[in-house]
Amino acid sequence: MVEKTDHDQHSGRIEGGIDAIVLGASADGLAAAAYLGEAGLHTVLLESGAEIGGEIRTREFAPDVACVDGDHLISVLDPETISDLDLYRRGVAYASRRMNTAYFFEDGQSLEIEGDLINAAASIDEEIGGGLAFQTFTQQLMELAAQLRPAFETSGSGRGRQRQRTMAKAMDASPDAARRLNRFLLSSGEAILNDYLPDGMLKTAMLTEIAFRSAAPAHEPFSFMNLIRRWAGETSGLQAAIAYPRGGVVTIIDALRRAVQAAKVEIRAATPVQKILIERDRVAGVQLENGGQIRAPIVVAAMDARRVFLDMIGASHIDIEFQRIVSAANPPVGSGRLHLVLKGFARDEKTKENMQRRLVYTPGADKLRRAFAEARAGDIPQDMIIEAIFPAAIDEAVDDDSRQLLSIIAHPLPFDSNADAERRAAIASAIQANVEQFAPNIVDRIEASDLSLPADLAATSGYHAEAFAARPGVMQQWALASQVTTASGIEGLYFCGPEAQIGYGVNCAAGRIAAKAAIRLSRRGSAAA
Amino acid sequence: MIFPVEDFVADAPKPSPLFSAAASVSEANLWTSVNGWSVARAFTSPDKEYHAAKTAAVIADLGPLARYALRGNEAAAFLGRLTTAPSARLGPGESARGLILDNDGAVVDLAEVSRLSEELFLLTTPTSHARRLQLAVRGFDVQAEDITDDVAALGVFGPNAAEVLRAAGLKSPGEAVAASAVVRGVETAARPIQFGALPGIEIVFPKDEALTIWERLMRRSQVGPIGLDAMEILRLESGAPRSGVDFVSAERAHPGEARLPLEIGLPHLAPLDRGWFNGRRGLRQSGERADRRLVTLLIDDDHTMAGAEVRLGDKPAGRITSCAWSPATKRVVAFADILPLSGGKQSQIAVITSAGAAVNAKLTQTAESALAASFRSAQKAATESGR
Amino acid sequence: MIATFDVLVVGSDEASLCAAACAARAGARVGLLRRKAEGKRQSDASVSAVPNAVWRRLDLQDYGVCLEPVSARISLMDEGESVATYPSVRQTGAALAANGAEDHLLWSSFVDEMARLKRTADLDGVVTRAPNGVAPLTSLLENPQRLSAVGQLTGACTDLLDDYFSDDGLKAHLGAYSLARAGLGGRELGAALEVPDSLDDDAWRVRATADGASLYAVLEKICETSGVEFFEGALISVLTEGGKHKVIEITGDAKLKSRCVFFATPEAAASAGIATPASPLVAQNNVTASMRFKLRKSVKPPVGDKDAIFFILDGVDDLQTARDCVVDGQLPESLPVEFEFARNGDLIARTNYCPKAFREEGEWRDWTGQDRQAVAARITQRLASRISALPAAVKKSKIEFIGADEPHKNRPMVASPELVVIQPSHHNAIGAAVQLLDKVLAHG
Fold first, then answer.
1. pLDDT category, B140, cuts 50, 70, 90?
2. In what order do the strands lie in the sheet with B179-183?
3. H/E/C letters for each residue in chain B?
4. Residue range C137-185, pLDDT digits in tens
5. Using the beta-carbon criterion (under 8 Å), do B130 and C105 form an inter-chain contact?
């Protein structure tokens, strides 16, 4: 995947004639670069690491077993980016388009909810009853979520703002909708669910979705918005679906890379940037660590805000209040990723079918509350949410093997920016213990295991570890995103790092929005000239 | 440096280090509170003190101003960010005025920066900015220390200021350069300051020595103290706006109250062509916009009050923000916050008196407005030659 | 003929009376439902200040009311440490300076900035859930400054304080006085909103002077003369059907009609068994215990004077730990306790950190007599840890619980914003109640 590693060639010299520089080859960075290139701008994409993809990387961690770091499922991939950049033609295909989720509860019960939520009511009725309540809930919520979609696309200016205004106007026109929205936005997940889903299992399942990868438990305000945010997204053309791409999430990166190459953007890997040059309140280019300079009137930064604004620009060029916002404390909670290689799986159809679902273990509302309290206090919780998939079982393209890779995301964990070996072992075994809750005796079948924490993702992506802490309350995310996308007013600088996005997941909308704003500036500039 | 607004609902004002000395020479015994410190409004009468300042020299207790010592090799860069003063260009001993702006370019406060040595700066501001400093030092190799409570400060103004200092055995700073010296074991820093059109010197020293230094000055030279009321006349005549009176800090402003440098007549303190400072991008975006103008008026009246309405032609245009009787012109000199004037209307300015009558007022040039005007014309010339 | 009102105010405290009196003076038909009085009215604890605007509406000076602010808010920390704040910003700054921390320089900036944040965020219309007064939140997205202030105020209290201060004692103290009245924890989202509220001038609690009239008695009199109709008993249900005026059932088989039911304080709603917000944002799942000690001989607080209000806590994390326990159905070990001295010398202690229900071996259960005793013992023990002379001086004590009667399984009456309005602020209860009721009646 290495494109070009020409450290020496550029050192010490000044390079010009470039219209735009993109910093960081994350999904958003790649998307931005592709947009810029397609618009005819002479664009260079700089990545500090040897490989592209941000934190999403393929890695061989046991003989013949490769895992993909970062996200393992797709839930909010921006449909506009997919069609604009023709990603389906460039290799994005889904092994599973709307994965069913099997919820496992602490009392040993389980519940399967269809991936197509609107049509899930029938099977729920069959299984446990209460389908109608669930249908009302999903319908109302998805409607609102779809309406709110523009609100989750933050940008300092431009068409995104326009869309938000249109949305706000539509909301204002209906006081009922506004009141409902206020309630959904401010309330805790528990409070809303109490009204909609009296049934224990459905309620717990939804509570789990709300708390998963969030910094706050479902009984705290704004938490309900986590669900709305996710359901505002769509995957494979279906709202609120969860999908597994053929070949893993890393194939999204591959497709984006093809789009970047087709747009004639030059990718330079292993080219760390030391600072972003600012002259007369405008971006002037970047200074490379090897001493070289690349001059360009546009820089699109797709790395974390701390790296971009505090390290690469520095306090002496950003506003004081802006600096406070960028360096504000992150939530002390994070997620952990555990990969297990398991041996000795039966190959019958039933087992295979079971392994094709998204598996979610939930310890229930009470234990989750305690888990969040423990994680926030810096302790490893005894109970946690587990989201697990068997990529090889889902993905037909992968060879059938009696060895299986189990890919797990566990939440909540304390946010450790540098956990030592002992702590890591304790975290891994706590995660395993929770996996055991729904897959007994799994420990005996582990052939290899690999834990990755925010600090590890930071090491591969070159971000600060804080960028991988759990997302704070949606209000704070909004506030932060609306600030970072203004880039402290520096003209020609556009930001599409993780802080520009509301909610988690590979999305690319921030990259698209940043690139389009940059293209507008560039056209204005050339029109003026 | 100009005092900020008085604390009208004074919350137990504390005595400044010079209080007991000042109190012992005060005949008027008229006090107020500024930044929580007791400050004399008058010692004898404002008239006498004003004349002494104009013809000889006076000393004033400058203790209530907020002072910060900044140390470190990035102190210049830090001050260049916090204030609009050209800190990096100051040589040791030099001082510069500037403004503190918020992100949008609106005025938070006035500031004076003095470079005492390569890595030591003194920042003086009318009001305290503890939080702003706390935030602004993040990311800089700077130690910011609030020394307001640790030092005493006094100013000597008037044509004879330098002689007064010499007579007291204090080393007088040169035209532009601050000096520090040890006087009988007391460390002092003296720096030249301007109080309006009056040359002056500010002496900053440890608060424990406050009385010694005051005594020395009073005994060795025939200098009298000056109170806030007389300083107010001098301030208005020189055209220096006062925080909390003539403009509201952007940090405390309600919607519509925040002011850009140009709007308070201080565009020359925030030039866009120097290095970057906090708020410069916001200021640049605001361009030449000026929704309001703070102007100095001479009013043909004997007793106008702050708050009086100002009219342009027969339309209300704003209010008097502060005023004083100017013995020199036998008129009231006032600051007025009004709508921007278009050329021809200058002759039609009127102020409504408390009796409801309209009296004539005219714009007047002050030391400050002259600086602003020459800055603006230089700027205009630069843009024209740029074309 | 059933009595018919524009509003039925439910509550037996000063804020309820004040809201009722103001509404009645403004011409509304007001009913006031309060608990049956048990015996003689006890000497009052401090109350939230009467904002000037409310005072002017009722002309309280005509009734001989004279209020003075409590002298200080004092946190009694572990090992004899204490932190105090005063009504005067300058006095607080000086007291903090005496403690030696650099934080004193920031105090006045902090107070100013919190007021500014609150003003900029302008969340009042959004979070009070007043009927018809909904400001759409989507309008927030238009204004980055406002959004940024909202972001700060809807975050954790600890983040807000950590960004300012370095001294743990001061942070614990500020956290306690912002959050304890709501029973919140410092790391909880939405808790930061309480900080500016607690620093508001009108959030500073006051007492009637020794020779002044009791505020409660005066308000009662104003209510009577303004035509407020009093009922004694408790709310049973609000029937949502019917026309503009809903039928309301109260104890003693009585019925009355009103357009809406108004709770002037979250406590009033909690004691009526209504699910209330612990803050404008956070759902309440705590029970308040209030304990009054009659003393044989007078005791002295370890620092400060008897006109102050005191808070007992051991460390900066106490509130969050306590809150976590409450959420988890446990009684906190180091229970945060607030106490003060009434005019007659009684010691009044209170804590909001009791769980709504208890969880034992994974099962939820209701309150028992033993639990009540355990809370009383814990409060007494906490007090004794700071005032060692107290146990010997107690003649008798009485504990009261607000919100513990409701069996936790029963779904509480839903506070639909059109019908049942609850004033969510724990600070400046009187001002906020009067303001909100005005809004409710204006939209009626």
1. very high
2. B179-183, B186-195, B198-206, B151-157, B58-61, B224-225
3. CCCCCCCCCCCCCECCCCHHHHHHHCCCCEEEEECCEEEEEECCCHHHHHHHHHHCCEEEECCCCEEEEEECCCHHHHHHHHCCCCHHHCCCCCEEEEEEECCCCCEEEEEEEEEEECCEEEEEECCCCHHHHHHHCCCCCCEEEECCCCEEEEEEECCCHHHHHHHCCCCCCCCCCCEEEEECCEEEEEEEEEECCEEEEEEEEEHHHHHHHHHHHHHHCCCEECCHHHHHHHHHHHCCCCECCCECCCCCCCCCCCCCCHHHCCHHHCCCCCCCCCCHHHHHHHCCCCCCEEEEEEECCCCCCCCCEEEECCEEEEEEEEEEEECCCCEEEEEEEECCCCHHHHHHEEEECCCCCEEEEEECCCHHHHHHHHHHHHHHHHHHHHC
4. 666 777 888 888 988 998 899 999 999 999 999 999 999 999 998 889 9
5. yes
Average predicted confidence (pLDDT) for chain B: 88
Give the one of B78, B103, B140 whose C-beta lies nearest to A319's C-beta. Answer: B103
pLDDT > 80? residue C237: no
Q: Is the pLDDT of residue B196 over 90?
A: no
Judged by CB atoms closer than 8 Å, whether chains meet at B130 and C109 is answered as yes
DSSP character string of B128-172: --HHHHHHHTTTSS-EEEE-TTTEEEEEEESTTHHHHHHHTTPPP
How far is it, in rounded angstroms, from Cα A125 to Cα A123?
5
| Nearest C-alpha neighbor of C379 from the set C286, C303, C312, C437 | C312
Q: How far is B158 from chain C (nearest CA, A)?
A: 34
In three-state secondary structure terms, B27 is coil
pLDDT at A162: 75
Pairing of strands B349-352, B358-363: antiparallel
Among chain B residues, CA nearest to C87: B11
Q: Quick: pLDDT tens for A189-199.
A: 888 888 888 77
Within an 8 Å CB–CB cutoff, is residue C359 touching chain A?
yes
Q: Is the pLDDT of residue C41 over 50?
A: yes
Tokens representing A195 are 């009204």
pLDDT of residue C39: 64
Mutating which of A148, A152, A379, A475 best tests the C interface, going by the most C Cβ atoms within 10 A?
A: A475
Which of A278, A319, A490 has its CB closest to that of B278?
A: A319
Determine how β-strand A43-46 pairs with β-strand A266-268: parallel
B302 within 8 A of B310, measured Cβ to Cβ? no
**Residues A151, A144: Cα–Cα separation, whole Å:** 11
- Distance between CA atoms of residues A208 and A106, nearest Å: 12
**Which residue from C minimizes the CA distance to B146?**
C105
Residue linked to tokens 């190799």: B141
**Measured CA distances, B336 to A214, B21, B353, B360 (Å):** 54, 36, 14, 14
What is the ipTM score, two decimals?
0.89
Written as one letter, the residue type at B300 is D
Are the CB atoms for B345 and B317 separated by under 8 Å?
Answer: no
Token code pair at residue A66: 């490769």
pLDDT of B7 reads 83
Q: For B231-338, list the strands marked E by DSSP.
A: 293-299, 309-312, 315-326, 331-338
**Which pair of tokens denotes residue B344?**
């021809």
Q: Do β-strands A293-295 and A14-15 pair in parallel, antiparallel, or remain unpaired?
A: parallel
Indicate the residue type of B110.
L
pLDDT tens digits for range C185-210: 999 888 898 999 999 888 999 998 88
- Predicted confidence band of residue B387 (pLDDT cuts 50, 70, 90): low
Kindly tell me if the per-residue pLDDT of C411 is higher than 50.
Answer: no
Compute the nearest-CA separation of B287 from chain A (Å): 14
Helix (H) or strand (E) holding A343: none
The pLDDT value recorded for residue C40 is 65
